[in-house]
Amino acid sequence: MMRKFVKSKLKWVALFGVVLSTVSLFFHFLLAVYTGKSVYEYQTSITLFRWKPVPENAGYLRTVAQDRRLWNPVRPLQYLHPLANPRRNYEAPALKTNGFIFVRIHGGFHDIRNSICDAVVVSRLLNGTLIVPELQSTTSSKGISSDYKSFAYLFDEDQFIATLAKDVVVERTLPRKLKAARRKKEIPVFRVPRSTSTDFYLQMVLPVLKRHSVVELLISDGGCLQAVLPPPLEEYQRLRCRVAFHALQFRQEVQELAAKMLIRLRASGQPFLAYDPGMTKDALAYHGCAELFQDVHAELIQYRRLWMIKRGIARGNLRVDSVKQHLNGSCPLLPEEVGILLHAYGYPSNTIIYVSGGEVFGGQRVLIPLHAPFENVVDRTSLCTNSELMGIYGQERYPAEPPPHDKPQFTKEMKVDTSGPRPRPLPPPPARPKYPYNVEGWWGWVAEVDKEPEPTITELRTKAHKLLWEAIDYIISVEADVFIPGFDRDGKGHPNFASMVMGHRLYQSAAAKTFRPDRYPRRNSGPPRRSKHNMGHIHPQDP
Fold first, then answer.
1. Are 205 and 234 in contact, with CB atoms under 8 Å apart?
2. d(CA 540, CA 433)
3. Is the whole model's pTM more than 0.85, yes or no?
4. Mutual orientation of helices 457-479 and 386-393 as an angle, nearest 10°?
């Protein structure tokens, strides 16, 4: 009896299990039928491969109105068109000028553009013949291509001369006698600061120009003339615009490569956004933003700030509360903050973001927080090959690097003398070679000497290459559907690369959508207000 009871109980348990399994399969089948469509839509919205052209039927859920808000130009400003032509009686330059004006320009990409604009205005003001400016970043670089000389390494020289034919007289080089006198340093030289007034040129430089028929202007501060000219000189202000937006065209090879990269950016049929971090070493040091980094980069920034304080470039204490500076808007927006702003404004995770503005201090590691919410973050290296970049460099020579200064020198006096009754001690071992200078940081000498080492040939060549890199980034940023800057000041407190891009976009198309994030704290709460003149710009709230 006991065995029969156990067997019957097991049969009921087995039967209950079979029924339960059948019911479970039935419910799973119903779940698959009624939720299959939504699961399919969810799966198709996932980007399976980064930087892959997205097909048109990808199934995005964004509405047309939302796309229009994110990407379309600002309607109220579509009817504004730039006009930099002269308004009043504007005389052509006189055939007989007061002399030649030779200009040497030091600095980076944005310094060069600003300085050339000012040099043209000064030449018009003094009725002088402008010699095509010499860019020290290219002339001091050894081994770069001989196909492009100085100004022509970056810009189209013929376009520059032809565009300014009705404004100033431009010559390619000095006459032979004056060129020889310049080599002997027999011509007067003026080192002019950024905000030099027009009175200085009329009272100090013009008499010397008339007396010697030639002067040399050395510009190393990103400009040589005051930013806002007096009202009687408003035509000179328009001349600046003609130089910046018409005369300064990049050479053909640079424009062609930038055009190819723009085609690749738009290959998916989607608009793209350009982002300039503005996180350069000098800008971080000048504004006291070292503590935004938590590693050796903070020490490097502090060392750079000390160097700038000693030379009068930066003011204030060495130790600055970086958190307070950041909250006050004196530091660049971090990549994670830019990602939060874009995500909050409605940009989806598959938005194509082009990182421009040259090198970012700290490398790609700093941009990792931006890659997390946005999958398609690209830069110059993602859109062109090394061979294409070598094509714009031209045929370069690669001379042998000189031996480092710290290499031990062995002389005859260091030979071991074994004569005598007892052997003499061996000479001390040679000095351990130091690590080579690293362009990103001063790794080899940050704690050893206070003097910056002389740049190597490779570093000088890379400095010239960076001008071409930023020229490509400049073209792409101006042509982008949307532009957002992380910072608008450089390592001297002056407008930087992003400021030039915003100005060019405003001139070329006032309706182009350009965001200006408000980095400054507000006294009263509430959402930031927009300017009624340009709804695409986010302006600081008035106090």
1. no
2. 52
3. no
4. 110
Q: Please, what is the end-to-end C-alpha distance for the chain in angstroms? A: 95
Residue 204 token pair: 């100090």
What is the residue type of 21?
Answer: S
Residue of 233, 239, 109, 246 whose CA lies nearest to 167: 239
What's the average pLDDT block by block, 10 residues per block, for the chain (543 residues)? 57 74 72 49 32 41 67 78 82 90 92 94 95 81 70 93 94 92 92 92 95 94 89 91 94 95 92 93 89 78 88 86 87 92 92 88 87 92 89 72 44 47 59 43 45 71 88 95 91 87 91 84 47 36 29
Question: What are the backbone dihedrals phi and psi of residue 492, each rounded to the nearest 5 degrees, phi first?
Answer: -125, 10
495's CB contacts (< 8 A; 6+ apart) are 110, 114, 488, 489
Widest distance between CA atoms in the chain: 133
Output helix, strand, coil percentages for the chain, rounded to the nearest 5.
45, 10, 45
Say how far apart CA 177 and CA 175 lie, in whole Å.
6
Amino acid code (one letter) for 409: Q
Q: How far apart are CA 320 and CA 303, in angstroms?
A: 13
Question: Do 80 and 510 contact (CB within 8 A), yes or no?
Answer: yes
CA–CA gap between residue 528 and residue 542 (Å, rounded): 10
Question: Rounded distance, CA 284 to CA 294, Å?
Answer: 14
For residues 484 and 517, is the Cβ–Cβ distance under 8 A?
yes
CA–CA gap between residue 90 and residue 354 (Å, rounded): 42
CA dihedral 459, 464, 467, 473 (to 10 degrees): -60
Give the separation between CA 220 and CA 107, rounded to whole angstroms: 6
Q: Are 198 and 230 in contact (CB under 8 A)?
A: yes
| Helix pair 234-242, 109-126: axis angle to 10 deg | 140
Residues 6+ apart with CB under 8 A from 432: none
The token duo for 43 is 């799966």
